[in-house]
Amino acid sequence: MMLYTIIPIEDVLEGIDGELPPKVDVVMGGVHLQVEPLSHFSGRVERIISSDPQVYLNPQYQPGSILRWT
Fold it and tell me: pLDDT tens digit string along 61-70?
């Protein structure tokens, strides 16, 4: 990969070695999701794992949305 930028490479790659937050695979409503836990009862959707195109149109499962469960 080539990266053409006027920003120094140290600034571009800053934090690349940092540890990523943990992700958890969850099934909600029959949909497989990869979620970043925020608390014991909520999480942020990171990725949808489905072959059904209708799932991607559901705003409840959009990446970045917050899911709550009990």
Answer: 999 999 998 7
